[in-house]
Amino acid sequence: MEPILSTILSQLREMPEARRTHHYWSAYSGGLDSHVLLHAMARLADTLQGVRISAVHINHRLQAEADQWAQHSLVTAGQLGIECQVIVVDPRPQPGESPEAASRHARYGAMEKLIGPQQILLTAHHQDDQAETLLLQMIRGAGPHGLAAMPFVTRFGSGWLARPLLTIPRDSLHQYALDQGLHWIEDHSNQDRRFSRNYLRHEILPRFRHRWPAIGATLGRVAGHQAEVAEHLDRLAAAELADLSGSQPDTLSCRGLGHLPPSRQRSLLHAWFRHLGLPVPYAVHLQRILTDVIVTASDRQPVVSWKGAEVRRYRDDLYANPPLLDHDRSQVIPWSLERSLCLPHGRLEARRVIGAGLRAAVCPGGKVEVRFRQGGERCRVGAPGRARPHTSVLKKLFQERGIAPWQRDRIPLIFIAGQLAAVAGLWLCHSFAAGSDEPGWELRWVSFFHRQR
């Protein structure tokens, strides 16, 4: 068996879930690297008995030839006897985001939705790509996790993402393509030296190779060493994070963090952001968290923001979330309890029950209104026979529960006939609560404050 085929097959067999994998998706741009991978997978189809092989092409529609490339992908895959799915994305950059990053996010976001359980997405990243990634991370001042560059295999949505070409130099892929008579697309944007990766690829790495021919393999080993260090740090951090939990879900105790030396604080914060699925901050933001947030007075509410995330403090709890979305507190939203209601920052659900929830008799047809806090709202909390003796202002109830101020105005309030009936996910107002044998609606509020992505 040819070396490239042997390497790919070996990598596939060593991956997690290898024995249970029933479907490989090969990410196919039409360029040389992805064409080699797709062609090799087609040749390995008989060896990988019982496993389905498909291709996926992402059409960003950024170049004039984009639709032609999509058609080329369909034809090429068809000639190899492989089904190809073309997905069109709209990679509009967010404020402060580069077009390159927006395209990458749109591309991987679309493919993540495609990959199901026991399925693996294969990408054609090779040894030279790994070297470029490592150098870029070094230039950015990354730590062990950044210097680990790209892993061979990682979780991806409900499936996996794997890079079976990661130990193979691009020159070897090019020779394979020539030997097999492959025809591929040349994306001229890959020659644009204004992009940092292209500058490294065409200006820097060739000079390195001239002096040190094995530089690609060497940098690959460096990435591997850093991946081992990062994995060790993650194991240590996981145990410590559990001991530093705050009073609210997914928070950390500022007091607990403050007792640690700065190096451990930084390591734990990095691990925490990865656990939450948030972008890890640059050093300047991390330092601001340590000096402006963790050690500040508990009655202050400082904020440190960077692209895709922000850190806030309330009392002793440290919060990390995606940036808050714009929110109109004045909106009034009709809601039929028979169906869930999706909001930008969460989802409302209701189900029929007996002896709990909103009394069905007070909301005929399951019709209510969703509003948001304006200030001064009051509620006598509790069901019949278990209610508080007096009404309370919502602000006081939120304070007692430890709800952070920036979350309070986004928690849905359920109104019936102009009166506050419930605070979703938290309290029922006494006069609207179902008795022990009465039909009711049990409300559930699924907040995106935690793990919003």
Describe the structure.
With 453 residues, the protein is α+β, with helices and mostly antiparallel strands. It folds into three domains: 3-223, Rossmann fold (3-Layer(aba) Sandwich); 245-321, Chorismate Mutase Domain, subunit A (Up-down Bundle), CATH 1.20.59.20; 333-447, no CATH class. The chain is 38% helix and 21% strand. The chain is built from 14 helices and 21 strands. It has helices spanning 3-14, 32-43, 66-79, 99-114, 127-139, 144-147, 170-179, 196-211, 215-243, 254-258, 262-276, 283-294, 394-401, 405-408; strands at 23-27, 52-59, 83-88, 119-122, 153-156, 159-162, 252-253, 303-306, 309-314, 317-321, 333-336, 341-343, 346-354, 358-359, 367-371, 378-379, 392-393, 413-416, 419-423, 427-428, 439-447. It has a six-stranded mixed sheet, sandwiched between helices. Strand 9 and strand 10 (317-321) form a beta hairpin. Helix 2 (32-43) packs across helix 7 (170-179), helix 5 packs across helix 8 and helix 9 (215-243) packs across helix 11. The longest helix is centred in the middle third of the chain and has 29 residues, at 215-243. The chain is globular, with a radius of gyration of 27 Å. It starts with a helix and ends in a 6-residue tail after the last strand. The model has no long low-confidence stretch (mean pLDDT 89).
